[in-house]
Design a protein that fits this description.
This protein is an alpha+beta fold. The chain has 27 helices and 42 strands. Helix 11 links the parallel strand 7 and strand 8.
């Protein structure tokens, strides 16, 4: 070969090698091949645009709809546009749990923006037209622009809404078209582009991690599926679109406060649904909450038509109603109870790229964003066209609500005083957040007609200081929706619901059917059938209680156990190294009434405490907003317990772990996590279920298993848990995690589900009767105790029992009853007032229940809380019952359980509870406790901390977490 050619060949070879090496080292990605049908070429924003306004593409680095913008990018865009345009004001209304800002954007003409405070004031006067004359009303309506509120992406992984919001904002601030300028002159358009920044941040991070070079339209690919902690929920894994009437989280509290300040005419809430679906909007079908105004539905039809016309022009398929109902008031549609016209959007969930749907067509993410955008523009244009008439209907309804002709005129909700100060404070805070008018009685008030929470019509004496919420007020519809004991459901809906359950197990109900706030909070309340106006005054918050009341020569401090905050007080003191006691029976020491469950901090127990005990007690009391009251004497009045006796138990600091990860309900896990953080504020660990087999449980003395979707734990894991419990651990299992433990083959718990208990059902019935007899304060045959001869007859509890069906028949009956699942109803439960798990709980406890395991107990297993509360029958009803029986014994059974003589069992408090469901859960255990070796197992049949708002049952969980190790398990002595 010629030398020159050889050199040339060598150079080419070296260059090739270097090019390959450089390509490999640089990680150069190949361009994807074309995917037919993916590209969406229609521009979202059209028309003449102001070049001085930065385009979304220039800010994001991609066109709107090409990718999901991150929360940081959205915030940056809002900030940039506020600097560039005189048509926009950006308001930060809240910060998320993770510290991200939440904004709403006010879009209008410069003239309207300069007059924002007056517009808000005028809207407020229409919203509560007390002393508003007709002429003033006409003047206000004449000068007010249309006011709309468009809200997007409360579920962080329903991404298209936020990107549509960016397109909508840009169109409104950049367009130089006459119709948009006119729209802004006639309207104030408020856009909340992102209601859940923490969830969207989690979602967009997952997208970034799963995104490849080539577009992916396969719904089974990880790009289109969710990790365990989905972006749908917020930091604590709560569904924020259930929180508007509950007010638990800063995100929704900020929205509620802002909407209440503005009183918009229209609210849009943009969501997403299944990826194979099309587009849903418009009015809901039954069941619809009966507290909603009729005019909102009338105008809803008008908006429906205009929106449908806009979608028809694009040849997009859509539908209305179908699965959408509107019974539960806690969605963003809560605004409709305030008089706002509410419209829901549900776009097929595409995430990024696109999705190949069942018909073979690729639906792109950009097209989904466009649907949300087109719908938004259509709705605000409809409002501008009909704004004045909508204002007139709005104020007409408000005038009726505050008049004597109000549909709620003869109704007042009375919440009785309680020593559970934290719980009452939370309730008042929620009522004030919603803008309700609150009063309290200045002296005792007698009422002749009231309904209690068990559905009984009673006469009542309301003590001075009773909290009164008159239903005759401008927000009467929302007041009724949140506080009425039952939401009305039509007979037609009930019949269809029953047909569906029997046909295929489906349901019309999209959410819970009970949500009464007083019941969820465990506050005693009455619905008084009159408008109470005498002997009342506007509510004033009670004066702050001192964190500590000192006394000379004191020996201890006491914090009342009736207050939920006492549990956190004890937990935080133990974490600070303070030895803490709890009393299990009420007493009086040094003139101080001490309820069971009260916390005692004595100088004797803390003789060697390294810090300043008084200062630590005061600091902790201030944090928990309780009063630590000093006592100087330890002798109980009369025969009441003395300090130093067996009723004062030393607590053990809990070392808590919660199971999390795949298989675990993120909603229930998040609720427990949030409860610990917000009620206790103590350190605890989250254990990933995938690493459980490698977890050293010896670090913890308390393990919580949240509800699971399936059998999450392996046989090895269950065996390790069993061994750990026997060594002194406290295991707390909830709802769906319970069946793994009660399975007879697991040999962990003695509790059984009802379907596994029929073989020994008579023993369960005898155990139930034994519980009843043990609580009675009288013994009819008391005189026989003193007879000298041996008794020839003894009454056995089962003597009068009706004959039970066979085991086979019982199982067959149970299978039938189980079809009629509980639809999120609140039921009455009876509590064992001598058990430590019920500290702070009333004798009758409202429990929110759904299709939960039905738990059966006997033998040494304790049942501190059972479903159903006994109500004594009057003599005439009892005689009638006896007369109706063949043998005159009047023995009755509800399912497997015998009713005691002269007793009825009250169960339903609120919501849909079919008779079959009532019969199945009657007398079953909601909460159980059993010893196992040196440890214990505590089971909840349902979720005690639902949406952060079931404070009544949350107290049981807090008791189990904080007091369990000290009161229910045997731990080694660690201090000498």
């Amino acid at each position: 070969m010629h030398l020159r050619n050889s050199k040339k060949a060598l150079s080419i070879a070296i260059a090739s090698v270097l090019a390959i090496s450089a390509h490999a080292n640089a990680g150069v990605k190949l361009s994807p091949t074309e995917l037919q049908g993916l590209n969406y070429n229609k521009p979202l924003v059209e028309g003449k645009l102001n070049p001085a306004i930065t385009t979304p593409k220039d800010m994001l680095g991609f066109a709107v709809g090409q990718r999901a913008a991150t929360p940081a990018q959205i915030t940056e865009a809002l900030s940039q546009w506020q600097q560039e345009s005189n048509r926009v004001q950006v308001v930060e209304y809240a910060r998320s749990h993770e510290g991200r800002p939440l904004h709403y954007v006010v879009l209008s003409s410069p003239e309207n923006l300069a007059n924002v405070e007056q517009i808000k004031s005028d809207l407020g006067r229409l919203a509560n037209p007390i002393n508003l004359s007709k002429s003033e009303e006409a003047q206000i309506i004449n000068r007010l622009p249309a006011v709309s509120w468009l809200a997007y992406t409360i579920h962080g992984n329903e991404a298209s809404g936020s990107d549509a919001a960016l397109a909508t904002i840009y169109q409104l601030i950049a367009s130089q078209e006459q119709d948009i300028e006119t729209l802004l002159k006639d309207s104030v358009i408020i856009i909340d582009p992102l209601m859940n920044p923490d969830g969207r941040a989690r979602f967009t991070k997952q997208l970034q991690q799963r995104r490849g070079i080539a577009p992916n339209v396969d719904t089974q690919s990880t790009l289109h599926t969710d990790a365990w902690a989905t972006g749908r929920s917020n930091h604590y894994f709560f569904d924020l679109n259930r929180d508007f009437t509950l007010g638990v989280h800063p995100e929704t509290r900020g929205i509620v406060k802002s909407i209440n300040e503005w009183n918009p005419q229209l609210m849009i809430d943009a969501h997403e649904m299944g990826s194979m679906d099309s587009y849903l909007f418009g009015l809901a079908r039954e069941p619809v909450n009966k507290n909603l105004s009729s005019y909102a539905r009338k105008w809803g039809r008008v908006f429906e038509k205009d929106q449908a016309d806009a979608l028809d022009k694009e040849n997009w398929p859509y539908y209305m109603g179908e699965w959408l109902e509107n019974l539960y008031p806690g969605y963003s549609s809560y605004a409709a109870f305030r008089g706002t016209i509410h419209i829901l959007y549900e776009q097929a969930r595409i995430k990024e790229d696109g999705v190949r749907q069942y018909n073979g067509r690729i639906a792109s993410y950009a097209e989904g964003v466009d649907k949300q955008y087109v719908s938004s523009i259509a709705n605000i244009k409809t409002l501008a066209k009909h704004s004045k008439d909508i204002y007139r209907d709005f104020v007409k309804d408000k005038r009726q609500l505050i008049s004597k002709g109000s549909p709620f005129a003869e109704q007042t909700f009375a919440i009785l005083p309680t020593k559970n100060h934290q719980r009452m404070a939370k309730f008042v805070d929620l009522m004030q957040l919603q803008g309700f008018e609150l009063h309290q009685s200045t002296r005792p008030i007698k009422v002749s007609k009231a309904k209690n929470q068990l559905g009984e019509m009673v006469k009542a004496d309301l003590p001075a200081g009773t909290l009164l919420i008159r239903n005759r007020q401008a927000q009467g519809r929302l007041v009724s929706a949140m506080l009425e004991f039952d939401a009305q459901i039509t007979d037609e809906v009930l019949i269809e619901e029953r047909q569906r359950l029997l046909r295929d197990g489906s349901s019309l109900m999209y959410d819970a059917t009970a949500w009464n706030i007083t019941m969820m909070y465990g506050l005693e309340a009455l619905t008084v059938k009159e408008d109470i106006t005498d002997d009342i005054r506007p509510y004033d918050a009670p004066q702050n209680r001192p964190p500590i009341v000192k006394k000379a020569n004191s020996l201890a401090y006491v914090v009342d156990g009736q207050d939920d905050a006492s549990v956190g007080f004890a937990a935080r003191l133990m974490e600070r190294g303070v030895t803490t006691r709890i009393i299990d029976k009420e007493t009086i020491l040094d003139g101080v009434n001490i309820s069971r469950g009260s916390i005692i901090v004595s100088k004797y127990d803390n003789e060697f405490f390294a810090g300043d005990l008084d200062a630590v007690v005061e600091k902790t009391a201030r944090e928990m907003q309780v009063t630590a009251e000093a006592i100087a004497g330890g002798r109980g009045d009369g025969d009441l317990p003395d300090f130093g006796g067996s009723h004062f138990k030393v607590l053990e600091q809990p070392r808590v772990a919660i199971l999390s990860g795949n298989g675990i309900s993120s909603l229930d896990f998040g609720a427990i996590w949030h409860s610990i953080d917000s009620h206790l504020g103590i350190r605890h660990s989250h254990i990933d279920s995938s690493r459980f087999n490698r977890t050293d449980l010896r670090r913890y003395n308390t393990l919580i298993l949240p509800s699971t979707w399936r059998s999450t734990l392996s046989k090895q894991a269950l065996a390790e848990i069993s061994t750990w419990v026997e060594a002194g651990g406290t295991l707390i299992a909830i709802d769906g995690s319970v069946p793994q433990l009660t399975n007879p083959e697991a040999k962990i718990s003695q509790v059984r589900q009802i379907q596994d208990a029929f073989k020994e059902i008579e023993q369960y019935d005898i155990a139930l009767q034994k519980e009843w007899l043990a609580q009675q304060n009288s013994y009819p045959e008391i005189s026989s105790v003193w007879q000298h001869t041996a008794a020839d007859t003894v009454h056995y509890p089962w003597d009068a029992n009706a004959k039970l069906p066979s085991e086979k028949q019982l199982k067959k009956q149970d299978q039938w009853l189980a079809q009629f699942r509980t639809a999120g109803a609140i039921v009455a439960a009876r509590t064992d007032q001598k058990h430590w798990l019920t500290f702070g709980a009333p004798a009758v406890l409202p429990v929110l229940t759904s299709s939960d395991p039905v738990l059966m107990t006997k033998g040494s297993v304790q049942s501190p809380v059972r479903f159903g509360t006994y109500q004594e029958m009057d003599d005439s009803a009892w005689k009638k019952q006896v007369k109706s029986t063949k043998d005159g014994q009047a023995a009755r059974k509800i399912g497997w359980a015998t009713l005691p003589e002269k007793q009825n069992l009250t169960l339903r408090m609120s919501g849909l509870l079919w008779p079959e469901a009532s019969k199945r859960i009657a007398n079953s255990a909601y909460l159980t406790r059993e010893s196992k070796g040196d440890g214990q197992i505590i089971l909840f049949s349902g979720q005690p901390v639902f949406r952060g708002s079931t404070l009544a049952t949350n107290r049981l969980l807090l008791n189990a977490i904080v007091y369990g190790t000290g009161l229910g398990a045997h731990t080694p002595v660690t201090k000498l």
